[in-house]
Amino acid sequence: MLILILKRVLISIPLLFVVSVLVFVLQSFIPGDAAQQIAGPQASPEMVEKLREALGLNLPVWEQYARWLGEVLHGSLGTSLLNGQPVIDALNQRLPTTLSLVIGSTVIATIVGVVLGVISSRGKGAAARFIDVLSIAGLAVPGFWLALLLITVFSVQLGIFPATGYVAFADSPSEWLRSLALPVAALSLTGVTAIAKQTREAMLDVQASDFIRNLRANGIPESAIVFRHALRSSAVRIVTISGLLFIGALGGSVVIEQVFGLPGLGTLAVSATTSKDLPMIQGIAVYFTLIVIVVNLATDIAYGWINPKVRTS
Amino acid sequence: MTETGLLLDVADLVVRFRGRRGKQVTALSGVDLTIREGETVGLVGESGSGKSTLGNAVLGLAPVASGTITFAGEDISHARNRQRRRLSRDLQAVFQNPYGSLNPTRTIGSTLAEPMHEQGRFGRAEIQRRIREVLDQVGMPADSAQRYPSEFSGGQRQRIAIARALVLSPRLIICDEPVSALDLSIQAQVLNLLGDLKRELGVSLLFISHDLAVVRYIADSIVVLKHGEIVERGPAAQVYDNPQAEYTQRLLAAAPAPVTHVPFESR
User: Which of A222, A215, A189, A217 is nearest to B62 (CA)?
Assistant: First the structure.
């Protein structure tokens, strides 16, 4: 297991490098740059050019990248071109918001999805069809639309939850929960349906297998069969989907944070891209990549814990 | 216990399943079958003949529409959990698929211990001792208990599945195509093992197979099933060597004799 973790950490270094190069090259194709943004539309071309030189934006792309990489190797991600704030500070300030949202929606999606999946795998006909309809609806409904719907109903009409804004956990745990309720709900719907469907299929597969037949023939109570045997065997599939969901939710958070006005990495990514704040974009890419690497590693460790085949090989 | 060690008595058994669009499918229509203490009865027939359904009905895995299943004098036609758990001391099963018959996430020891745990009257040391004993009986090393199903071959897994069936020292084991998924050479080994156990432990077997030659090897008497009805029954040698029913003759003719190839039963 230790070797597995070490391997993953080593592989992640070239991965980070490739991602950072890709993001750098891709953003260089976008017309305009931060100098134009900072100087504003009224500025003279000379002023913009001066600013460009000061920021090092006149250099060839590879040289700009080399400078950035140099900073990274010194343990910094540079400073924002717009306001001079260290990128790391800006990111760390916003990370908890995004993690609360993404972890929250993955956990909710997994718990609710597994419960629905197990119920539908036990029920005949109606329950199963309900989950099927729900899962198609869940995949078809776009998150931002659901978000607006939730705001209309729960914030505007019922006034139960705030429509926008974020309260840090440290400031007020209860307000933190309230501020996250709607975004998490909006972000987790797709996940709930995906997990429910996968759980149902996995449970049906396992329950058709001979070892479950054997337990039934031995008069083992259904509850023990479901929880001690079938669910445990289905867990590999559920964990796989959960890991994928987490990564999907990370992408989805960009839109959801925007809709709910949450000060997370997603909103920062949007504003940094529109203003072409290069170091900030790079920093966000690095953070997102790191999160994905950590999640994948966690998924692998979970596999080993659930499935002895992985553990021994 | 009733007349002359009668262990299992299936009388006029009817099993129906709900098919598509609520149509009833009759899997077994009025089947009679008895197994005496220590006897091995072979149940043969093609796919869909209802032979597995009969085993399932005895194990409580198929719904009994009418008729009775009596085990050691007790009506078990509709036995549910509590009765089943008590019954499992005397009635066990080995199924076809050696890959699906063991929970892949549990050690062999844990799988073997489960039936004893469920009985709730065995101590930890007693369970461990019994696990070593049954592993030895099926020719598996004692250290298998710490390992996982994925570390064993199909034949070894089937031995382990047999060990699990033996743990509670049952009087009857339902063997549903126990060797059909195995290579021919492994089939012979597992069959020999079942033969040995039957002799040494005096356990009765209901041996379900589509392969008459395999059944002939292990069974004392043979029952031939076709479309949920019994078409022929008698001592194994007689049914195999001198089949009366046309269906049995076809079954025999269909298998290249002597056994050189055992086709997979598709289900």
Answer: A217
Same structural domain, B2 and B93? no
Closest CA to B104 of B160, B32, B50: B160
Residues B123 and B146 in one domain: yes
Residue A308, pLDDT > 70, answer: no
- Are B164 and A214 a contacting pair at CB < 8 A? yes
Boundaries of domain holding B180: 80-202
CB contact under 8 A, B83 and A219: yes
For range A199-218, the mean pLDDT: 88
Domain match, B13 and B117 both: no
ipTM score for this prediction: 0.81
C-alpha distance from B115 to closest chain A C-alpha (Å): 7
Rg (CA), chain A: 24
Q: Do B104 and A307 touch (CB under 8 A)?
A: yes
Which residue on chain B is closest to A306 by alpha carbon?
A: B105
| Domain ranges for chain A | 2-73, 95-274
The pair of structure tokens assigned to B231 is 């078409």
Q: Please indicate, yes or no, whether residues B66 and B105 belong to a single structural domain of this protein.
A: no
Chain A interface, Cβ < 8 Å to B: 209-211, 213-222, 229, 232-233, 306-309, 312
Task: Measure Cα distances from B42 to A36, B32, B253 in Å.
Answer: 88, 14, 18
Task: State in words which class domain A95-274 has.
Answer: mainly alpha
pLDDT digits (tens, 9 = 90+) for B228-263: 899 999 998 888 888 888 888 888 887 665 544 445
Subunit contact A217:B93, Cβ cutoff 8 A: yes
